[in-house]
Structure prediction request, 397 residues.
Amino acid sequence: MIVGIVGKPSSGKSTLFNAATMQDVPMAAYPFTTIEANKAVGFVRVECVDKEFNVQCNPRSGFCHNHIRYVSIEIIDVAGLVPGAHEGKGMGNQFLSDLSRADILIHVVDASGSTNEKGEAISAGSYDPSKDVEFLEEEIDLWFFGILEKNWPKFARTAFESKAKLVSSMAQNLSGIGATEDIIDHVLLELSLTDKKLALWTEDEKRAFAKKFREKSKPTIIAANKADMPQSKPNIEALSKKFPGKIIIPCSGIAELTLKRAAKDGAIDYVQGEADFKILKELSEKQNLGLEYIRTNVLQKFNSSGVQQVLETAVFDVLKYIAVFPGGTKGLVDSQGRTLPDVFLMPPKSTALDFAYKLHTDFGKNFIKAINVKNRQLIGKEHELKNRDVVEIVHSA
Prediction:
């Protein structure tokens, strides 16, 4: 599962990426600071199961704080997109291609309206952020439409055989941008195109297919960045009214990044996603003023910097992933003495067999049974797992 961070230049994308991953990606107030997609690891929070077993876990990756497990996810930061990206403007095709691997997109929008459509600095409040939402969706829709048109002759060859073969062909040829048979089937059904011959599709129907496919294959949430600026509040309210069906989360990437760096330096006690921090050592007046600004104008207003909420909304609320812990009925400690060292994020409706394959291909191939470690009940390979399940896989050698 990959989370893609997208948006126009200078919207605060790279700052939010750095805040989420603590990577030193270049940041600057001019277009195309990011030339190639940056990849790094961020974290989402899961209530750890260790307290239910009266133990303290020892994570192999990530960390656990007060029985809250921070589980790693892959994040990519794609260089800023500009109008005409689908035609290659601003190296757009390269950037859109990088997006194709993402399962969900976080669209970072400059909620203060202080950058124009090209990412150039202008007076705060003089640009309408809703234009960014519309332009990004339009660019991806046009890009998908272009790919659809390019592959249309291949689809036409299978159109008269059967619906199943058509769906399979479309999914196969569009797999590079996230297509699955289930998504294709749903899009055709929703647009009432299931039984319509491809030769009779109008251009408007093709464009509608591209748009609906984008919505299904690349769900997007809006990170309303720079939310602490005075001009941002009315803009965020306007965004919510104009796009009532979209998830819009106020956030401040620079606030989160500042807090994490201060914590790394030992100046404050702060864990990502929390609503406050504690100063640990004497700081300069400028540093104290900066931290107090963040506390008053970000943490107290939004109950966090919003960055962690953006990631967790993407993974758990939109993609609906669940966290599953491997364990054993005879103990929760691995061969190296680590207690509950691992946790895996699994897609919704994952089964015990899916989890076995996630652990190791041989576990899936040689699956015998699975055990719910919490209640010690046997579960079959088709048993659908739930969030925070602890599962032991029994397999042949």
Q: What stands out?
A: Confidence is low (pLDDT under 50) at residues 25-35. The chain has three domains: 2-127+219-316, 139-215, 322-395. The longest strand covers residues 38-47.
